[in-house]
Write a structure and sequence with these properties.
502 residues; alpha/beta; Aldehyde Dehydrogenase, Chain A, domain 1; Aldehyde Dehydrogenase, Chain A, domain 2; seven-stranded mixed β-sheet; six-stranded mixed β-sheet; 37% helix
């Protein structure tokens, strides 16, 4: 593993200090009480700017604006008009790609090579894909023709849910926020977004894009702040919010579900994971190593779909461990703008404390550190940043906490297995159920094992290969409901049946 020692590079787009304001009813506004908190660059802990913290007043104003837009101009548009506006939003994100890229990389510290291939393109695509799904989705129709009914036509009519609260995390800020905002707006809802306190920039910038594209004011609103006793709690408890869509930790999801139970509001929950990979001896090992390098270490391991538990069939165990170790040693730590860097810092010093506590725990629990396990020595311009070593462990027991709890960092535990049945049992032995990756060239085995996984998503010989028309979501404690494709339309609309007797 090599550290990047280049001098601090000028960042062209964002001024050295700025304030991230709320975006309410088409305007950027401060908090009335002037409350702010700091936003720091995880690369070197320098101050990016201040973020306004919303109180009840700002949340009320945002929800009011969203309700007015729903009952007013947005609600009166045809679906085709809405779709055209959202396509324009997608195009405008692409035109301002560089600004979104800069903002995302500065908030998260992630390499530009990652954000320019994943975060920003998907941020734009999320506005197009769901418009297309909606436009092509048939209406269900049933003709009832019995002696009693003597003819009746039933058809489904979709209406928006109303004002939707979008609560999003910091790991893929624009991607995960627009994965909800795109379909919510396409279905005719209006939204109030509460981005993570760690990553306020791209949600803020998107407000400008909405105005530039002529999206009516009040359709897209942003309130900044923290969770408890702040914007997150005020928004999810707001009586005039009709549905809540959340991505984040399982424990936060439980709190939000309690808030949503008042008034029986709908929730969609995309939560944590402790995802397994099963690597069979008959796999294409080059592909398995390349895929696992990404699934365990891309985005500094901060991907809900990331692999933290790897089960490898005994005959190739030593080889797999050695090759993954070599892959980790080849990672290049560096600033986002360093073209060679493929590994950035964690999102914050606070998150590093959490991940490091698991690094210490691993040793206490008897795991062997294959590589990493600590804090890297960065050059003096980055030493104050949230850098951490990518880490591999072997030898922990199946009930060790590092094998069972979500760490959300660049680390994984590798364990050998002997039989397919054993691998399935080990993979399923968790409270989580987000995703699994299976590496084998045997199609029958792949199908059998995929169907046995207690998760919402399975990748065979790949990872994070996304088709936005498919269902996305977790089983067990990884979530409730599905989004993606028609599943998003189901969540963001109320389906009304109309029965016409003729
Ligand atoms: P988090 O739960 O701490 O925060 C997520 C959001 O919830 C933030 O905007 C936060 O301010 C807000 N929040 C916190 N407490 C709240 C409260 N009481 N009321 C209302 N809002 C509140 O999660 P995080 O640390 O930002 O993100 C990492 C977690 O997200 C990991 O567990 C990861 O697995 C999960 N995640 C899941 C998916 C998925 O699709 N399943 C995707 C990305 C991340
Ligand atoms: O690709 C997506 O649509 C998606 N929701 C990815 C989630 C990644 C979690 O960190």
């Amino acid at each position: 593993m090599k550290n990047q020692g280049s001098a601090l590079t000028e960042r062209a787009i964002l001024p050295e200090e700025k304030t991230f304001r709320h975006f309410i009813n088409g305007e950027y506004v401060d908090s009335t009480d002037g409350k702010t908190f700091e936003n720091r660059d995880p690369v070197d802990n320098s101050l990016i700017g201040l973020v306004c913290e919303a109180g009840q007043k700002e949340v009320d104003a945002a929800v009011r604006a969203a309700r007015a837009a729903l009952n007013g101009p947005w609600g009166k548009l045809t679906q085709a008009d809405r779709v055209e506006l959202l396509n324009r939003v997608a195009d405008r994100i692409n035109e301002r790609f560089e600004e979104f890229l800069e903002a995302e990389c500065r908030d998260t510290g992630k390499p530009r090579s990652v954000a320019s291939h994943i975060d920003i393109p998907r941020g734009a695509a999320n506005f197009k894909a769901f418009s297309e799904t909606l436009a092509n989705h048939p209406t269900e129709t049933f003709k009832l023709d019995t002696p009693d009914s003597q003819g009746a036509l039933n058809y489904g009519h979709r209406v928006p849910k109303g004002v939707v609260a979008v609560i999003s995390p910091w790991n893929l800020p624009l991607l995960l926020m627009t994965f909800k905002v795109g379909p919510a707006l396409a279905c005719g809802n209006t939204v109030v977004v509460k981005p993570s306190e760690e990553t306020p920039a791209t949600a803020t910038l998107l407000g400008e894009v909405m105005n530039e594209c002529g999206v009516p004011t009040g359709v897209y609103n942003v309130v900044h702040g923290l969770g408890p006793d702040s914007a997150g709690e005020f928004l999810t408890a707001h009586h005039d919010v009709d549905a809540i869509t959340f991505t984040g930790e399982t424990q936060t999801g439980e709190i939000i579900m309690r808030a949503a139970s008042v008034g029986l509001r709908n929730v969609s929950m995309e939560c944590g994971g402790k995802n397994p990979a099963i690597v069979f001896a008959d796999c294409d090992l080059d592909k398995a190593i390349e895929g696992t390098m990404r699934s365990s270490f891309v985005n500094c391991g901060q991907v809900c779909l990331g692999t933290e538990r790897i089960y490898v069939e005994q005959p190739i165990f030593d080889d797999f461990v050695a090759r993954l170790k070599a892959g980790v040693e080849g990672l290049k730590l560096g600033r986002p703008e360093d073209a060679d860097a493929n590994f950035g810092p964690l999102v914050s010093l606070e998150h590093r404390e959490k991940v490091l506590s698991y690094y210490k725990l691993a040793v206490a629990e008897g795991a062997t550190v294959v590589v990493g396990g600590g804090v890297p020595d960065m050059d003096e311009t980055m030493n104050d940043g949230a850098w951490i070593e990518p880490t591999i462990w072997i030898g922990a027991s199946d009930d060790a906490r590092i094998v069972n709890e979500e760490i959300f960092g660049p680390c994984c535990h590798i364990r050998p297995f002997d039989t397919e049945e054993e691998a399935i049992n080990l993979a399923n032995d968790t409270d989580y159920g987000l995703c699994a990756a299976i590496w084998t060239e045997n199609l029958s085995r792949a199908t059998r094992v995929a169907e046995a996984m207690e998760v919402g998503l399975v990748w065979v010989n790949s990872w994070f290969l996304r088709d936005l028309r498919t269902a996305f979501g977790g089983a067990k404690q990884s979530g409730i409901g599905r989004e993606g494709g028609v599943h998003s339309l189901n969540f963001y609309t109320e389906l009304k049946n109309i029965c016409i007797k003729y």
